[in-house]
Amino acid sequence: MSTLEILDLHVEVEGKEILKGVTLIVNQGEVHALMGPNGSGKSTLSYAIMGHSKYKITGGNILVDGKSVIGLPANERAKLGIFLGFQYPHEISGVGISNFLRTALASNGKTIPGAIEFHKLLKEEMQKLGMPEEFLKRGLNQGFSGGEKKRSEVLQLSVLKPKFAILDEPDSGTDVDGLKAVALGVKEAVAKNKTGVLLITHYNKILEYVKPDFVHIIVDGKIVKSGDAKLAREIENAGYEKISKAIFPFRESGDSRYVGVAA
Length: 263
Ligand SMILES: Nc1ncnc2c1ncn2[C@@H]1O[C@H](COP(=O)(O)OP(=O)(O)OP(=O)(O)O)[C@@H](O)[C@H]1O
Ligand SMILES: [Mg+2]
Prior knowledge:
Blueprint: E1 3-13, E2 16-27, E3 31-35, H1 42-50, E4 55-64, E5 67-68, H2 74-79, E6 82-85, E7 92-96, H3 97-107, H4 115-128, E8 139-140, H5 146-160, E9 164-168, H6 176-193, E10 196-200, H7 205-209, E11 214-219, E12 222-227, H8 229-247
Parallel strand pairs: 3-10, 3-11, 6-9, 9-10
Antiparallel strand pairs: 1-2, 1-4, 4-5, 7-8, 11-12
Helix pairs in contact: 4-5, 5-6
């Protein structure tokens, strides 16, 4: 079984330490939800895993099947089976979804179905995601609305069948039907392709469909609590303030030694 290991990861952005020792191990076929307040480092973690050059690894390691990916460019990481669904997906004009995905499959060393077969597959997957076929005529994400972009990320996930997917708020901006479609797409990737998922979200709703095996809470660049699906419901009801006070009983005292230190 494949594993994605993030070990004591420290990451700096523009000279500022954002991740302060994150450890997470995702096995293929598992769903790990990652929740945390705005600015706690969730997107930073996803960019660092994918190898964005702005995010400097100053300590720790990221391993796929025991092999470090530190220093590898994003395309090499993709070849090893890592996929990133962006919080804010980019628009690529001039490259249609179909060409983009065929090229991605080829560069990942996967078999590319014939043009007709591929078109049929895309149409089927797009239908499940409630995406009109005419989107195939546009550039990737070009002029797509926020929710449409999220559906497009999940379409890529279903076609590329990565070993591991980091999905940065796939539910944000989706309408009620979009949320369900996106969630079912993720669920199918886990069940059918055994993709291991790190699902970043602010809301429990998506987790009602994509049942997480683990839920982790990140605060100020550190995982401060891990648990099962119940933890996500707790967060939704109580908010981070209450939970982080319980975790950091000394924070209020202003003693900086205790800020960012898990109980
Ligand atoms: N390129 C950058 N330059 C300067 N600061 C950055 C940069 N990227 C991230 N940061 C800072 O790092 C911190 C973590 O940001 P990050 O985007 O990882 O948060 P997040 O947990 O994903 O938040 P959200 O829930 O709002 O998406 C923030 O304080 C942010 O301002
Ligand atoms: Mg983010």
